[in-house]
Amino acid sequence: MYQHHVLSALAGKIGATSVFIGTMRDFNEGDQVKGMTLEHYPGMTEKQLAKIICEAQGQWSLLDALVVHRVGAILPDEPIVLVAVWAAHRGDAFDASRYVMEALKSKAPFWKKELLHSKEERWVLKNTDGYTKT
User: Fold this and answer.
1) Labelling 81: which of 23, 58, 66, 101 has CA 20 to 30 A away?
2) For the residues 47-54, what does the mean pLDDT come to?
3) Kind of pairing between the strands at 110-116 and 121-123
4) Among 10-14, 57-61, 102-106, the least confident range
5) Could you tell me the CA-to-CA distances from 29 to 8, 79, 112, 126, 128 in Å, in that order?
6) How crowded is residue 13: how many other Cβ atoms within 10 Å of its Cβ?
7) What are the two backbone dihedrals, phi and then psi, of residue 132, each rounded to the nearest 5 degrees?
8) Is the confidence at residue 104, as pLDDT, over 70?
């Protein structure tokens, strides 16, 4: 649906599409996680996501970008976020997609409460940086 309505105006101009889908893991900070509740501040969250996309459009040559983020109850292996970026060239699409995802993790007002297998609940105080530590 999105492609037909929005992207049809860009027909022939798109040379690259970068899509990232983030899913919920069943572990965090060394603990097994059974589920999570994701909360946000309506209005503020959408404004911040739009600002992040504008920042990406200012740094890379983008044709369009889209962020869809879930809220509410989420279980392991379920998708949480979709980031899609369209550009004429793959470098812009890849780099902008990574930027949007990292900025979203650090700037967008989402709050996560994890339910551990031990039945304990805890708020996530910080997001991971996106790389595995070895």
Assistant:
1) 58
2) 98
3) antiparallel
4) 10-14
5) 44, 20, 14, 10, 9
6) 12
7) -80, 135
8) yes
Total residues belonging to the chain? 134
79, two tokens: 């998708």
Backbone φ and ψ for 119, nearest 5 degrees, come out as 80, -5
60 phi and psi angles, rounded to 5 deg: -130, 160
Q: Quick one: average pLDDT of 79-91?
A: 97
pLDDT at 10: 80
Token pair, residue 84, equals 């899609």
3-state secondary structure 26-78: CEECCEEEEEEEEEECCCHHHHHHHHHHHHHHHHCCEEEEEEEECCEEECCCC
Mean pLDDT value across residues 90-104: 97
Place of tokens 């309506």: 42
Q: Which residue has 């470098």 as its token pair?
A: 91
CB–CB of 96/20 below 8 Å? no
Give the CA dihedral 60, 88, 106, 54, nearest 10 degrees: 60
Which token pair is 110? 């989402």
